[in-house]
Structures are given as C-alpha cells and as structure tokens.
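HOLO CASE FILE
Compound: nicotinamide-adenine-dinucleotide
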Amino acid sequence: MRHLRRVVMVTGGAGGIGAALAERYARDGAAVGIVDANEAAGAALAQRLTDAGSRVHFAAADVGDFSACESACRAIETALGPIDTLVNNAGISPKHAGKPMPFWQMDPAEWNRVMDVNLNSVFNFCRVLTPGMVERRFGRIVSMSSVAGRAYLDIVAAHYSTTKAALIGMTRHLAGELGPHGITVNAIAPGRIDTPLVRGVAREANEKIVRAEPLQRLGAPDEVASTCLFLTSDEAAFVTGQVIDVAGGWLMT
Ligand SMILES: NC(=O)c1ccc[n+]([C@@H]2O[C@H](COP(=O)([O-])OP(=O)(O)OC[C@H]3O[C@@H](n4cnc5c(N)ncnc54)[C@H](O)[C@@H]3O)[C@@H](O)[C@H]2O)c1
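Model generated. Tokens follow.
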C-alpha cells in the first residue's frame, strides 16, 4: 500500500496501459481519477474498481482540449480531493490499413491531432495541476513517452515520434523547474506492449520487433504499471528527470 492516501489521476485510463495503471493504483491504496474519451469503458472500469472497495472517479474528456481537462481535474478533485500524482498516459498512434502515414503524404489535421492528444494534453494537465502541487510542496508526475521518442521506428509515423521525443524534453525541463517545489517529474519509454494500440499493426511487424528484443516477447500493460508505481512511490523520492525504458531490452540507448 505504497500509495495509501494519495490521489492519482490517470489519463487514458479506460483501456490498455492506462486501465492497468488505474487498477494497480487502486489496489495500492490510492484514490484514482480516470480521464478518458471512451465514456462506456471508463465508467465500467470505475464501477468495477469501486465495487472492489476503492475510491474511484471517472471523468470523460478529450485530453487535447484544455477546458475539458480543467473540468475533468475539478470534477475529480471535488470527488476525491487534491490530485498529488499525475500520470499522463493518453496517447494515439494513427494507422492507415495497419500502416503509419508517410510524412510526405500526411494530412495537417492528423499531425495537429496527434500534437493535441499526445503532447498538448500533457501541458494541459500539468498546467492545471502544478499550481496546487507547488502550493502543497508535493507532487509526482509521470508521462508516457516511447522508445520511438529516441530512435527511428518504421512502424510509427513522424507525428508520433515527434510528440514522444518532445515529452522527454518537457520531462527534463519540468523536473528542473519543479524540483525545488517538491515535485518529481519522470517519463517511461515503453517498447512493444500488448494493448489495442499495438494490435492495430500487422502481426508480422510485431513479430519482427519481438525477434529483435533480448527478452523476445511483447510486454504486458501491468509491467509498465509496475515501473510507474515505483516512480511515484516514496522509494523513488530522489529520482527525477529520468526516462525509464520498459522495453525488454529493445533499442537499448
Ligand atoms: N502499447 C505500446 O506498445 C506503447 C509503446 C510505447 C508507448 N505507448 C504509449 O503508452 C500510452 C498508452 O498506450 P496504450 O497502448 O495503452 O494505448 P491504447 O490505445 O490501448 O489506450 C489508450 C487510451 O487512451 C484513450 N484516449 C485516446 N485518445 C484520447 C483522447 N483524445 N482523450 C482522452 N482519452 C483518449 C483511449 O480511449 C484509451 O482508453 C500512449 O501514450 C502510448 O503512446 C504505448
């Protein structure tokens, strides 16, 4: 129960890695705010965790929209109390018939959407929640980057890797600026994790990656959650500005 008395917000918490995070934080004693655009899945998960005895509140929002993020934070804080732990997990990686769009054919609207969901969302939630963390002199922030933020991967498009690299820069900057206020800021760079996002790609593409990994398998959402829970726990109180790969040894950098 390392997160007893914590109030944790997980964005994109209704599915994939986010749902594993919500579940693990709830089991670890935290009150959990789930934000997701998928209302049905978010409400169902919140209900299931509440029935199991946890304090959970679901707020539906498009994380790319600043005022929707603000409303979601307020709704969760009203229900559960001040948010001290923020996990910026929501993200998209658009595919076309299972393939990434070549940069030279990319629609500007698709580029901007990925910026909004993967990158501007992190600004939105950090901007809304850090004033309270600064005031209380405590905060934990983790953002979901990707190994695609550090290396060229032909299975994702340029907008995706751009946002994931930007999150690494943002993590380091915020760690520097917010450290003196008692706030740690870290990132996780997952490799290939078995979620709906990865299942949208041709099976051969995933098999090729698995063969290139020392551990020779897809990761499980719960394995990403384990690293995230460590980073927000008291055991990691002296860890900030770091990017931790959870990638089975793939693309060691
Ligand atoms: N799965 C992987 O292999 C992998 C690898 C590297 C990084 N990541 C990152 O981990 C994070 C989670 O990925 P995942 O595989 O669990 O994805 P997923 O597609 O399985 O789940 C993403 C969740 O985010 C929600 N979401 C998407 N757009 C949203 C929006 N605009 N507003 C609110 N909610 C929204 C979805 O409804 C869904 O519940 C993402 O940031 C992703 O880029 C995943």
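CASE NOTES: The chain has one domain: 7-245. The chain is about 45% helix and 15% strand.
CLOSED: yes
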